[in-house]
Fold this sequence. Notes:
- Helix content is about 10%, strand content about 50%.
- By secondary structure, the protein is mainly β.
- It is globular.
Amino acid sequence: xxxxxxxxxxxxxxxxxxxxxxxxxxxxxxxxxxxxxxxxxxxxxxxxxxxxxxxxxxxxxxxxxxxxxxxxxxxxxxxxxxxxxxxxxxxxxxxxxxxxxxxxxxxxxxxxxxxxxxxxxxxxxxxxxxxxxxxxxxxxxxxxxxxxxxxxxxxxxxxxxxxxxxxxxxxxxxxxxxxxxxxxxxxxxxxxxxxxxxxxxxxxxxxxxxxxxxxxxxxxxxxxxxxxxxxxxxxxxxxxxxxxxxxxxxxxxxxxxxxxxxxxxxxxxxxxxxxxxxxxxxxxxxxxxxxxxxxxxxxxxxxxxxxxxxxxxxxxxxxxxxxxxxxxxxxxxx
Length: 334
């Protein structure tokens, strides 16, 4: 009886989490600033030699215990001057009163195929991952801890917990296409499948697979004026019975003033869930991004339309190339 009660409790927790996030997987509003989480085919898809990305998201603090997600990744391109790229990413997510925790470590690789005119490329990526999940039962409250007047945490719960977590191996794959038409005119598209092997995620040796997630993304960069670029973007994701559509874009204003290179501002809509805004800045080799969600779903009655803040930081290391200058030799006797 107690085991059934616990299973029902966890099932309800997972269901609520899925409904709120429209997905079982970790994801970000600034998906365009979290490339290794979006698609394994984006490993090494940047201008530079090495890239470091950090993301942080806090959500639902106005409704319940905040959901917090942290991510950090590093990737490189042209390993040993080959078409091979490599990347490492780590994600940590905590949700709800029970500190339902997900730790994911993924190591991925890509192979870049340059098309004949070299302005287009196709990148094939694979990303094996290791995931650990756990829950803190001590944070839950049970009817046996009610003393007749109020809740008493010193009373025993009367429940027996055989397992508080589990681990599983996973595999993701992706394909990305990039077309650099001109200096400030580009097109890109990518598709990915996450959870290819559908690992078992139950804590109790039951048949509860993690459903596959399909992702399609298209984006562009277009010069509008001498100082302004437009960056439209659209994302579609589907996982089991849930799907997510995000569309919107950013404007990029070129500063070209010392280390201050560009400013960004954008508006986005996530279907039946939220509208959010973002601002950003390019400074030297860094890119900073901040976004805020306004909740538009049925939860807005409890959330008062408040969603959450999200932050991103990208650093791209450029390999220094010395400026080779040729001088004409003149004999001394001239």
